[in-house]
Every structure is written in structure tokens, then in C-alpha cells.
Amino acid sequence: MEGYDKKEGFEKHNRDEIFSNAVRAGKRTYFFDVKATKKNDYYLTITESKKRYDKEGNFSFEKHKVFLYKEDFDKFADGLLEAIDFIKTTNLEKENEEKELVNSEYSEPATIIDGIETDSFTNVEFEDLTE
After folding, report:
1. Strand ranges (DSSP E) for the chain?
2. In 3-state terms, what secondary structure has residue 1?
3. What Gene3D superfamilies does its record include (predicted)?
4. Using CA of residue 58, residue 61, residue 21, residue 23, what is the dihedral sign?
5. Is the pLDDT of residue 10 over 50?
6. Is the pTM of this model over 0.90?
7. Measured between alpha carbons, how far is 116 from 121 in angstroms, rounded to an integer?
8. β pairing state of 116-118 and 59-69
9. How distant, in Å, are the alpha carbons of 31, 54, 61, 93 from that of 64?
10. Residue 102 CB partners (closer than 8 Å, separation 6+)
11. Which of 25, 34, 59, 118 satisfies CB 3.0 to 4.6 Å to 18 for a cystine?
12. In sequence order, what are the residues at sequence separation of 6 or more whose Cβ sits closer than 8 angstroms to the Cβ of residue 52?
């Protein structure tokens, strides 16, 4: 299997990085790298990197990579923004519902008279108590 180790015919084309930006977010790091094709067209790679530990305490990086080409930029951006907007809107609605629930728990308690719940106090005259 001569030449197999050298992977003849599979020369790695060095893709110069045109631009790179790393964003640290908690335990993850996201890398946004702009690279060029053979024809000098730019494309974007988005890499998520997370440090993982094995049982012996040794660490390695788990990476997930997405390649995004220029013809897909607009559709990708629209989809991403729509998903983010949905999450923000949904979370805001949930937060408002939780606030309303908390506020209702601390509102003036209802009065129960003869097993019937009322939201206001009943006006009782002292004469009514002397029967």
C-alpha cells in the first residue's frame, strides 16, 4: 500500500483565513472564520468548541463546524434572526406570565363567607352580632 500513508493526490489546499473572531460564551467558544475558496470566493465557518474531560482528568476539545457559503448568507441570517426573535418573544411572554402569577399571589386575599369566595369585605354591622 505504497503511498497510502502520504495520501498521494490528496494535497491539502491551504485556505488562508481572511478574518477570524472568537466569542467566548460560558463553557463554549464560537469561532467565526472567513476563508477563501480556490476561486477566491469567501465563505464562513462557524465552529463551536467545548472542553471535555475524560475519566482520568485529561481534556480534549469537542468541535462542531458549520460551513456557510455566500449564496446562503441571507437565508441563513433570516432564519437565525427569526429563531432568536421567537425565543426572545416567548421568553418575555413567560416572564410576564410569571410576574403576573407572583403578583396575584401577593394581592389581597379573598374573603370566604358561608363557603363562597368574595373579592371584597362584607360590611358587618354590630347590631347583626347581638342576635
Report:
1. 17-25, 28-36, 42-53, 59-69, 111-113, 116-118
2. coil
3. 3.10.450.700
4. negative
5. no
6. no
7. 12
8. unpaired
9. 10, 18, 10, 32
10. none
11. 34
12. 59, 60, 61, 62
Q: Is residue 63 part of a domain?
A: yes
Decide if 128 is inside a domain. no
Q: What is the domain-level CATH number for residue 37?
A: 3.10.450.700
C-alpha–C-alpha distance, residues 88 and 123, integer Å? 47
Of 7-21, 48-62, 67-81, 84-98, the poorest mean pLDDT is in 7-21
At residue 97, the pLDDT reads 77
Q: Please report which confidence band the pLDDT of residue 108 belongs to, taking 50, 70 and 90 as the band edges.
A: low
Of all residues in the chain, the percent with pLDDT exceeding 70 is 66
- Grid cell of 113 as nine digits: 363567607
Which residue stretches of 6-108 are H helix?
A: 73-105
The Cα 5–Cα 71 span in angstroms is 36
Higher pLDDT: 43 or 102? It is 43
> Domains in the chain: how many in total?
1
20 close to 31: Cβ distance less than 8 angstroms? yes
pLDDT on residue 78: 97
